[in-house]
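task queued by scheduler; priority normal; single chain, no ligands, no partner chains; default sampling; output format set to C-alpha cells
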Amino acid sequence: MQSASDQLPEHDYPDHWEADVVLRDGGTARIRPITADDADRLVSFYEQVSDESKYYRFFAPYPRLSAKDVHRFTHHDFVDRVGLAATVGGEFIATVRYDRINDRGLPASAPADEAEVAFLVQDAHQGRGVASALLEHIAAVARERDIRRFAAEVLPANNKMIKVFTDAGYTQKRSFEDGAVRLHLDLEPTDRSLAVQRAREQRAEARSVQRLLTPRSVAVVGAGRAPGGVGRTVLRNLLGAGYTGRVYAVNAALAGNGGPVAFDGVPAHPSVAAIGEPVDLAIVAVPAERVPEVVADCGEHGVQGLVVLSAGYAESGADGRERQRQLVRQARSYGMRIIGPNAFGIINTAADVRLNASLAPQTPAAGRIGLFTQSGAIGIALLAGLHRRGAGLSSFISAGNRADVSGNDFLQHWYDDPGTDVVLLYLESIGNPRKFTRLARRTAAVKPVVVVKGARHSGSAPPGHRVPVTRIPHATVSALLRQAGVIRVDTVTELVDAGVLLAAQPLPAGPRVAILGNSESLGLLTYDACLTEGLRPLRPLDLTTAAEPADFRDALVAALADETSDAVVVNAIPWVGENGATEFGDGEVLAASLREAVASAQAPTKPVVVVHVEMGGLAEALAVATSTRPTAPGRGAAAAPGARPTGLPAAPGTGTAGIGAVPGTDSSGPGDSPVAGTADTGPNGAVSASALSAPAPTSGAGAVAGDGDGDGDPGSTPAPAPVPPATIPSYPAAERAVRALAEAVRYGQWRRQAADPGRVPEYEDIDEAGAAALIERVLGGDGADPRGVTLDTAQAGELLARYGIAVLPTLPAPTPDAAVAAAGRLGYPVALKTTAPHLRHRPDLGGVRLDLASEEQLRTAYAELTEVLGKPEELLPVVQTMVPRGVDTVVRSAIDPAVGAVLSFGLAGAASELLGDTAHRLVPATDRDVADLVRSLRTAPLLFGWRGSAPVDTPALEEVLLRVSRLVDDHPEVVAVSLEPVVVAARGLSVLGATVRLAPPPPRTDLGPRSLPSY
C-alpha cells in the first residue's frame, strides 16, 4: 500500500538529523537518515538479522526483502515517511522508521499527527541500547514534523522491544488487540522521559570512560626501535607502572621483518592487525599525517578507544582544524572514542589496572582524587604539586584539544565512581556549559568538584578547542557554576590547596573556626584571614613559644571536643632553644602528636589544617608515611608506651621519592625520576600521608627493628603498635589554609541546602495562555522581524501584567503643556524624566526631577531640563507619578545560547555597575535561589537596614524575581527582560521601567535526543 506521500517530491536531505551517540556499553554509533543510496547496506544488514528477529518485526517468516521492500524502506520524503539507521563502520546495525497515519490507521499526510513506528536491531548489537537511542531520535524527528503520537504493534513475546517503549518515560497507553500488544506513546517530553534520557546518557558516557581507563590490552602505536621518543616513553611508563593487562608495541617500519621483535621485552608488530589478538586501547604517537591509517587499522580490528598524543591538529591553524574534524569523524565511524589529539595521556591507579598511558614518568600514588586537565604542562605541574602534598589520585586525564572525550564525560564517570571522592578540573574552555553545569550540580551533590578556569580574559577559546559563542562575561559563568555547587578557584595552587583538604578532611558543619598555636602573631594573621573569607573565628589560643608537641596534642583534642567550633587551624613555628638557636628538628614529633590527637577523636567531624612557618620536617612528616616510626623522646613527645628511642634520620624529602613511592620500598625502576621542572604550585605543603595505610618498611632508613638490620631479632622487644595515622593537610601561609577552609565551608553549606533546593512557586494570577497569545501575535504578525522585536511600552506592560508584574504608567511629555496634562491625569506629586538612550537610567547626569508637587514646579523643571540637556525631541521626556522611597534595584533576565536563561539582580547606580556587583542564577529559579540571589550582593546590607535605615520589603522583591523567572522559563521567546529601576520600599515595590525583547527561541540542545558534539 502506498501513502499519499509516495507521490510527493522528496524534501532536501535533513543533515541536521545526523548524530553520533554513545551506546550503553560505551561504544559509539552514528544515526542518520536512510536514503536511496543505502539499498545494498539495507540488504546486507537484513541478511545478518536472525529469523526470530525478522519474525518479531514482520509477525511472520520473512527470510529476505523483496525489491519492492528495499525501495520502500530506502525512499522517504522525510516528512510523512522517515527512516533512520544506526551505523558502525559505515554498515547498518539497526533501523527505525515511521509512517504517518490517520485515525483509522491508514497512510496519511499532515495535519494527521500520529505515526506508526517499527524497529529492527541486528542480533549482535541487541542489548547495547541502540533501540533506545533510535527512539529518542525518531521521536525528535517526528515532533519536528508535527507528529505528536507514535503507535506500535509488538508481539507479546518480544519483551525487549516492549521494554524499549515502556521504559522510555513517555506518556503511553497499552492495549491487546488481535494477538499483539498495541502501544500509543505521547511524544511530548515529560519529566520522566527527560530523567530516563539523562540516566541513560550518564551510564553510557561513564561506561565509555571506564573502557578507556580499564583496558584489558594496550597497543602503543609509534613506539620507535631506539629508546626515547614519545612512543617508547609511553611504553616504558606502562611497564614501569606495572600495568596488569597485555601490552603491545606497533611500528610500521617492522613490516617485512623476518623474525619476532621486542621493545623493552614487549612484542612489537608492524600493525594492530598483525597482533592477532584483541586490543582495547591504542596509544597513538605517530605524525599527524599518518594518524588516519592508524585509526583505520584500529577501527577495523575492534579497538575500543584511542589516546592520540600526536600534535598538528586544531591548535596549529585552519588545516589542523580540518584534520581534527576528519579524525573525530573517522574514529566515531568505527565506534571508537578519542582522548586528544595533542593529549598528554591517561592514568588509572587502581590496583587491578595500574595504567600509566601518559608521558608522566611516574604513576601517582593511589588515592581518592580524580584529576582532569586540558593542558599537558598544567597536568605535569598538578601531578608534581599533589605528589609533594602527599595526595594520591584515582585517575588522571590530560585531554589536549578534547575533540571528543571532555570533562563532561569524566564527570559522568566520577559521579558514581566509588574510587573517587574529590574531582579536580583545570579547564581552558567549556564546550557545553549548559550540560557541564547540570552534570557538575549532580556530581557536587555527592562529592566536591573544584574547578580552575584558564583563558578567562582572552576573549577567545584556546587554539584547538571548539566552544559555543557566549555573550555573558566570565564572572557570570563563575556565579552560575557556584550555584551548581562547583568550588571555583583562581589558580592552580588554590586548586591543589582545596583538593588536598577536601580529600583529607570531613566537611565543616559551619563557619566557626578555632585557632591554636605557638605564635600569637600567626594566630592573629589567621584570625584576620578568617574574617576576610567570611568565617567566624574564635579568639586564638596562644600556647606560647614554650609549647611542646604534647601541648599541641592536648589543645587540639580539646578543640575537637569543643562544640562551639566547626573547624580547627593549628599554627606552628620553630621552637627557640635555651641558647637562642632556632630548632627545626621537631617537625616529625609534632606531626605524630597532631595525628594522635585527631585519631583520638571518637568520630572526627571537624576538619583540621596546619599552618607552618619554616617548621623543619613538619610538612614532610605529614605528607609521608612515618606513623610506624617510634617517637623520639624529649620535648614532651606523645610516645606510645614501650616505644624506644632510635636514631632514625628525618623523613625523606620530596626530592627523594618518585610519585607513588612509599618510603622504605623500591617502587621506582632504573632511570626513573619524579615529575619535575614544571611550574611550582607552592612550597612543600603538608597533607595526609596517602601511604599511611602502607605496611611498615622492613629495610632501609625507615625500618623498625631491634638491631637495626630490619630482619627482626626474635629476642628483641617488638615495636609497639603504631598510633592510627590521621590525615592532616598543611599550608605554608595562613591565607592559603583559610581560603581552602572557607571553600570547604561554603561547599558544605551548599550541600546541606542542596538537599532542599526549594520550589518554583505557582501563582494563581499568572495568565500563561494570554501571554503566549500576545507573543504569537507580535512575532507572527505581518512584517515581524525574524531576528526579534523589542516591545513598545504598552506591549511590555501588558505582557508583564499577565505574570502579575505591574509597571508604573509613564506618559510622554513632548511639550510643557503635555507634561502638565499628564500630571493632571496621574496626580501630583510627579517625576519628570528623560528617556533618551544616552540619559536613560543616568540620574547622575541630571535627567530626573522628583517630587514635583504643582504645575509651577513641573513647568520650571521642564524648562531647566530642556535648557541644560537639549531639545524635547532629543530628551524624550516623560511624566510618572511618585512612589514611596526605597532602594533602587535592577532585575534582568536574558537567554544566552551557551548557558540558557539567566536571572540577574543588582542595585541600581553607577557604583554597583563599576564594581560589577550583580548576582546571577539559572532559570527556572526556586524560592531558595532568589533568596540567596538577593543576599549574595556585596551591597545587600542596604536592603536590610544598613546604618539604621529601614529594611525594605525583600519578600516582595523575591516574588518579582520569581515571576520574571517563570515568564522566561514558560516562554523561551522572551529572550530578554529588564526591569529598571525597581524601587523596593519598606512595604511593597514599584517597577518604574521595563524593556522586553521577543525573538524565536534558540534551540535547546539539552532537551533534544542524546548526541555527541557534531563535527
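post-processing summary
- Residues 26 and 208 are 4 Å apart (CA to CA).
- The radius of gyration is 34 Å.
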